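Sample A.
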Amino acid sequence: MKRILLAEDEPVLRMLVVDTLEDEGYVLDEACDGQEACDRIAAGRYDLIIVDYMMPKKTGLEVIREARVGASATDAKILMLSAKNQQTERDKALEAGADAFMSKPFSPLDLVARVEDMLGG
């Protein structure tokens, strides 16, 4: 069973993503801000981390950087979600260590397809 961490501060979007991916058989943990995401990454093992760009306490970029270095470094795939869809923002996310970038708004079907692609089916 693949485990996913979703770090998203918007409750409605968090619920949509959780419901969509749980319907596909994934196990999800949730974080509502960047610090909680970092704490969960340090405490658990995830196959995929889905992280929002703009969050309270720590940004998505900070979460990604922390997830990629130090004692709690993870080899989980990381998908950045953002309403900031300029190429410079995509580049920043990839440079920080994200494996992929997805612009908001997105369709649930597109999210499922991206997750399945990143997790190998």
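Sample B.
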Amino acid sequence: MIPVKMQDLINAQINAEMYSSYLYLSMSAWCSDKNWNGFAHWLRLQAQEELAHAMKFYDYLNERGGTITLAAIAGPKADWKDLPAIFKEVYAHEQKVTGMINALMAEAIKQKDYASEIMLQWFVTEQVEEEANASEIVDTLEKIGPTAGGLYHLDRQLGQR
């Protein structure tokens, strides 16, 4: 049986991952509206990945005999200034999620919940990748600036994901 505190934190993380999916889907819709289809594609896949993360927590909590309690998902914003603003927000959001995963890991260690520690290790590693990917896109956007050719090239590249 999973400790109650871990159960509650994992339920909160399920909600956070679902929100992440909503946020990235909203960003994808903004990009689609602006005809940045490669950026939209990348963000839509990211939304799907976040949903898969939520389900990984859901399944884990179920396997451990915990009680799954789903809460309302906050609506994400729907408008951004430009592509750099979106990806700066993606990067900041991933840093926030990393903090949440780290807090889960700290609690698992505190509770001596070794099964949760092992499961959470996957998410710790995943967050390193998530932050690196977002940071790389932010860096690329800063390097190319508002040039149409550079943005078009990056759009095409991200559409290959």
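B remarks: The longest helix spans residues 114-144. Residues 4-73+82-158 form a domain with the Ferritin fold (CATH 1.20.1260.10).
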